[in-house]
Amino acid sequence: MKKILLIEDEGALQKSLGDTFRGAGFEVLSALDGETGERLAKSEKPDLIILDLILPQKDGIEVFQALKDSPATKDIPVVVLTNLERIEHVEKVLEMGAKTYLVKSNYTLGEILEKIKQVLASQS
C-alpha cells in the first residue's frame, strides 16, 4: 500500500482528501503545519508528499527546501496543492523539483486523486 503524506492546514480539506485517498487504497499521514510535516516525512518516508505552500510555523517553500536538502527525503516526489496562483510560486517549486503544481480551486477531489495516481505510476 502506497503511503501519502498530506501537509495541509485546512482541516476540512485535509479530511476530504484523506478520505478520498484512503478510499482509493492509500495509507494517509496528515500534518497541519510545516514543522510536523517535515518531521513526518523524515520519520515515515512516504511514497509521495502533497504540500500546501501556505502553512503555519514553516511555510511550504521552507519545508520543500528542507526535504530536498535531506538525503532521507530528497527523492520523495512532491505535489504542490495550494491556492497560490502566481507564476513565481509555480516556477519556484517546479525548479525545486515538484512533480506538479495544482491550484485547489481548479480541481475536484477526483481529479486530484487521478493526478496523484499518475505521479505515483511515473515513479514506479
Describe this structure in words.
With 124 residues, the chain is α/β, with parallel strands linked by helices. Helix content is 48%, strand content 19%. The protein contains five helices and five strands; from the N terminus they run E-H-E-H-E-H-E-H-E-H. The protein has a five-stranded parallel β-sheet with strand order 2-1-3-4-5, sandwiched between helices. Helix 1 links the parallel strand 1 (3-7) and strand 2 (27-31). Helix 2 packs parallel to helix 3 (60-69). The longest helix has 15 residues, at 109-123. The protein is globular, with a radius of gyration of 13 Å. It starts with a strand and ends with a helix. The model has no long low-confidence stretch (mean pLDDT 95).
Which key phrases capture this entry?
single chain; globular
Q: Which term fits the overall shape?
A: globular
Arithmetic mean of pLDDT: 95
Helix tally? 5
- Overall radius of gyration: 13 Å
Give the uncertain stretches in residue-range form: none
Could you give the order of the helices and strands?
Answer: EHEHEHEHEH
Structural class: alpha/beta
Percent strand: 15-25%
Strand order within the widest sheet? 2-1-3-4-5
Task: Tell how many strands the DSSP assignment holds.
Answer: 5
Oligomeric state as shown: single chain
Largest sheet: number of strands, sense, barrel closure: 5 strands, parallel
Q: Give the termini distance in whole angstroms.
A: 13 Å
**What proportion of the residues is helical, as a percent range?**
40-55%
